[in-house]
Amino acid sequence: MSSLDKSVFGFLKKLQKNNNREWFNENKSTYIAAHEKAIGFADELLAQMKKHDDIETISGKKSLFRIYRDVRFSKDKSPYKNHFSGQLKRAGKMLRGGYYFHLEPGNVLIACGFFQPNKDDLLRIRQEIAADAQPLRDIIEDSKFKKAFNGLEGEQLKTAPKGFDKEHPDIDLLRYKSFYVMSKFTDEEALNRDFAKKVSDKFQIMRPYLNYFSEVLTTDENGLPIV
Questions:
Q1: N- or C-end of the chain: fewer Cβ atoms within 10 A?
Q2: Averaged pLDDT for residues 192-214
Q3: Strand order in 98-103's β-sheet?
Q4: In whole angstroms, what is the distance from residue 140 CA to residue 108 CA?
């Protein structure tokens, strides 16, 4: 098994205090070593994930996002992210959603689901919930699911979305603008050699959730395929 080690978080902690190009260039070799460790973790996670889901991502390195920030439209002009993060994308048009991991000292987390889905996808999700929310509730209220994740995350409307009854019995779900869940780990857990497997195990618990949305987003209101 490949694992993270303290040097990864050590580099990121120093970067938090010295987020500028001069310091980064002077410590490029330290960044490269930490990045290689992050790639090793991502490779191990990818291997674990392929045991129970169809993953399109071809390598741990390909799964990682760049550490360089896009500051064009941001008030924060810090040139670098203070974390390593990445996403494993599911394979094919029929499997929607993806798996996100975030490695940051004091803020290690994973997330799954649909963050700010486009207008058409959001409408289709709401249509399905309005018609019958029980299948989704069965998934998110399952004891294993509730133990692994903290419930639905994301911004909600203050009232009913346009075209939906504000008195609908499932208005609590209909108000969501994103449909994702998250789980956090301690730094100590992230440094254990079995961390990739623990992450994969939690992602596996997420499978019914992603499969539910995959079915919804690849069919119309009558259950007929649209892809």
A1: C
A2: 96
A3: 84-89, 98-103, 108-114, 179-185
A4: 22
Strand ranges for the chain from DSSP E:
84-89, 98-103, 108-114, 179-185
The one-letter code for the residue type at 33 is A
Query: How crowded is residue 7: how many other Cβ atoms within 10 Å of its Cβ?
Result: 12
The CA–CA distances, whole Å, from 157 to 34, 166, 172 equal 40, 11, 10
DSSP per-residue string spanning 149-178: S-S-BS-B-SSPPTTS-TT-TTHHHHTBS-
Q: How far is the C-alpha of 16 from the C-alpha of 130, rounded, in Å? A: 45
Judge contact between 152 and 179, C-beta under 8 A: yes
pLDDT tens figures, 66-109: 999 998 888 899 999 999 999 999 999 999 999 999 999 999 99
C-alpha dihedral sign at 6, 7, 10, 12 = negative
Judged against a pLDDT cut of 90, whether residue 200 lies above it is answered with yes
> Can you give the pLDDT at residue 124?
97
Quick: pLDDT tens for 6-46: 999 999 999 999 999 999 999 999 999 999 999 999 999 99
pLDDT at 71: 87
pTM over 0.90: yes
How many whole angstroms separate alpha carbon 125 and alpha carbon 109? 25
**Separation CA 64–CA 90 (nearest Å):** 15
State the angle between helix axes of 195-217 and 28-49 in degrees (0 to 180), rounded to the nearest 10. Answer: 60
Tracing tokens 């995959």 back to the chain, one arrives at 214
